[in-house]
Amino acid sequence: MIVVHHLNNSRSQRILWLLEELGLEYEIKKYQRDPKTMLAPPELRAVHPLGKSPVITDGDAVVAESGAIVEYLLERYGEGKALAPAAGTPERLHYRYFLHFAEGSAMPPLLLKLVFDRVESGPGPFFVRPIARAIAAKVKDAFVLPQIRQHLVFLEGELAKRTWFAGSDFSAADIQMSFPLEAAAARGGLDGQYPHLVAFLERIHARPAYQRALERGGKYDFVK
Ligand SMILES: N[C@@H](CCC(=O)N[C@@H](CS)C(=O)NCC(=O)O)C(=O)O
Question: Could you tell me if the CB of 7 is within 6 A of ligand 1?
Answer without folding.
Answer: yes
